[in-house]
Design brief:
It contains 9 helices and 2 strands. It is mostly helical.
Length: 256
């Protein structure tokens, strides 16, 4: 049974409908049932329920006054309203399970632990490769004319720099950067395509440089042929151009 109203009604007007509902359910209806059936708020529903409990012929409870403090005549209306609001808030507030925070913390820690494990594995893979690649490029640079220079003559005469270190830093660092752009996603399509091609090319070029160095060293060659020298001399310029182009493509946005 549903009772509708277009305007607020007094308790006296609602009491007959509440009695009828009580007869229908064979007892005093709950506050939520009164709210739903009579379309009233929690305070009026509680007040109606108290009135029904105060009627001996309706209440099925042996001691309604002790079971429902709001039925007592000496209850302060302000305190009763506060209790009603607290009860309503408790009904609509979801329960917090003690394990929720621990489960959330565990869910956060697990990806971090996996990331640290992958980083550790990558470090052990990269460390020996770094040593071999660095020594190979520096040795190849020495065979192709790269060597110690004084970049600040007349200003800092004692400052010296071996230009052979520019080869491993430039070529291998760009290959790692291009791989990152290619595999990470979230960058424009042109940038991914350029990164894929240039990353593979850089890795092949790096492997070719290592092979050339070890072949010449094992053959006792102390000066590389002009073809290899020309190619190695062009590497710093090529790396600069590819790096600038890829950075521009990544930052331009556009089609993903």
């Amino acid at each position: 049974m549903t009772v509708t109203s277009a305007y607020p009604r007094d308790l006296a007007d609602l009491l007959p409908a509440a009695r009828t509902l009580a007869k229908t359910v064979s007892g005093v209806p709950s506050r939520n049932r009164l709210m739903r059936e009579l379309r009233i708020g929690a305070p009026k529903a509680q007040a109606l329920r108290s009135a029904l409990l105060a009627e001996p012929t309706v209440s099925p409870l042996a001691d309604p006054v002790s079971a429902y403090p709001s039925a007592r005549a000496d209850v302060n209306p302000i305190i009763e309203a506060a209790e009603i609001n607290a009860e309503l808030s408790a009904e609509i507030t979801p329960a917090v399970h003690p394990g929720t925070e621990a489960e959330a913390a565990t869910a956060i820690r697990e990806p971090r632990a996996r990331k640290r494990a992958h980083s550790l594995i990558l470090f052990f893979l990269a460390a020996p490769a770094f040593v071999a690649i660095w020594s190979g490029w520096v040795g190849l640079g020495g065979l192709t004319g790269f060597g110690v220079v004084h970049p600040l003559p007349g200003i800092w005469d004692s400052l010296s720099l071996n230009t052979a270190i520019t080869l491993p830093i430039g070529v291998e660092a760009y290959a790692a950067y291009a791989l990152r752009v290619w595999l990470s996603g979230g960058v424009p399509r042109r940038a991914r395509r350029f990164a894929a091609v240039s990353a593979v090319a850089s890795l092949i070029l790096g492997a070719a440089g290592q092979v050339a160095y070890h072949l010449m060293t094992s053959a006792g060659i102390t000066s590389a042929p002009w073809q290899i020298t020309t190619l190695v001399a062009c590497l710093p310029v090529a790396v600069l151009g590819m790096g600038a182009a890829l950075a521009h493509l990544v930052s331009e946005g556009g089609d993903q």
